[in-house]
TrEMBL record:
InterPro entries: 6-blade_b-propeller_TolB-like, Hetero-Diels-Alderase-like. Residues 1-19 form the signal peptide. This is SMP-30/Gluconolactonase/LRE-like region domain-containing protein. Keywords: Signal. It comes from the Eukaryota. It comes from Penicillium oxalicum (strain 114-2 / CGMCC 5302).
């Protein structure tokens, strides 16, 4: 998110080794160097999972950009788009998608999270997908409510209502979002350029800074000021991706979502975007310009799940979402807009289904 530079400039500043992502992560674990993790174990793993990849839906035009996705209770997916202020619904069983809502007066949608049964909070704001420039102060959290029982008889998306939860004018560029607990009515939202995590009460509209640490801030000397990106809550921990620091970590928090422990780096050395975490603490992380999804064990071991730096399976993988049974991961993409494969290949945004065999 920067006025004058693009992700291409960022990639030029990364260590040379990471330009060869598939090769680097298939090295023998005994020869790889340890990067920081919660436990003192070698993080590199050859234990790549046996999976099947399938494209279930693709938008028709280049320039489309899925930034986040979430599963509804009926198994359908809600997709947020960066290139246009729209939320879409996708039935992965049939591969059909339809527009749910287009927000006026803004350019983009970002994080999305379920806050009540079939009720979702959505981040919207102004952001250019060509200059990567946000408009500070333009970011708002909206609510999309599908819970009307009568409306559901007319179709899964019929009769929904949209209302504003809160504007957060102090934010520079809100990004990933996760629900904390239903009882607290809190969501946590990443403010990527400044490395903050806001907490917002979705009932009262009150908000304040909950997460603020060097590990969440953009790395020094990087062309793109993109720090904390995705957030996820599991048990007493908030998990986070910190993109330009190339770190995935977690911090223990109390019942008010305030840190009570150290910020721990679980794994590092790759470009994490949005992610999901399974019930056992295993994370599935999209790597956007590295065009892949990786699996991180709780001990910090890394395995390539699908895609790769030179792969066109999922160019610009932006987000991951586990299904409720944790047997499938859905991946949203930007089509490689951030960094085209081999500097040339781009395609419309799509949703890829990864099934564990």
């Amino acid at each position: 998110m920067h006025v004058q530079t693009t992700w291409v400039a960022l990639l030029a500043t990364l260590p040379t080794a990471f330009a060869f992502w598939p090769t680097y992560y298939s090295q023998n674990a005994n020869n790889a160097n340890n990067v920081g993790s919660v436990n003192s174990v070698n993080p590199h793993s050859n234990d790549e999972p046996n999976v099947t990849l399938e494209t279930v839906f693709q938008f028709p035009n280049n320039g489309s950009w899925i930034v986040n996705l979430v599963e509804r209770r009926d198994g359908s997916l809600l997709l947020t788009r960066l290139d246009t202020p729209e939320v879409w619904s996708l039935d992965p069983a049939t591969g059909t998608a339809e527009l749910v809502h287009s927000f006026p007066m803004v350019t983009s949608c970002f994080g999305i999270s379920e806050i009540e049964d079939d009720v979702f909070a959505v981040v919207i704001g102004n952001f250019s997908s060509t200059t990567y420039q946000p408009t500070p102060g333009s970011f708002v959290v909206q609510k999309i409510d599908f819970s009307n029982a009568a409306a559901r008889t007319e179709g899964a998306n019929a009769g929904h209502t949209v209302s504003e939860i809160a504007a957060i004018p102090e934010a520079v560029a809100l990004n990933g979002m996760t629900s904390f607990t239903r009882e607290s009515h809190l969501v946590l939202i990443a403010d990527s350029p400044v490395g903050l995590g806001w907490k917002l009460n979705t009932q009262s509209g009150e908000y304040s800074v909950a997460l603020n640490n060097t590990k969440l801030r953009p790395a020094e000397g990087q062309a793109l000021p993109l720090g904390v990106n995705g957030l996820k809550v599991l048990n007493d921990y908030v998990y986070y991706s910190s993109t330009t620091r190339m770190e995935f970590g977690r911090v223990k928090v109390n019942s008010e979502a305030m840190p009570v422990g150290d910020y721990e780096t679980i794994a590092s050395g790759f470009l994490p975007d949005n992610f999901d975490v399974a019930s056992d603490g295993t994370a599935y992380i999209a790597t956007d310009p590295q065009n892949s999804v990786v699996r991180i064990t709780p001990s910090g071991q890394i395995a390539l799940v699908g895609g790769g730096q030179l792969s066109t399976q999922m160019p610009g993988a932006t987000s991951c979402r586990l299904t409720s049974d944790e047997k499938t991961v859905y991946v949203g993409t930007s089509g490689g807009q951030v960094a085209p494969v081999l500097g040339q290949f781009m395609e419309p945004a799509k949703v890829v289904k990864i099934t564990f065999n």
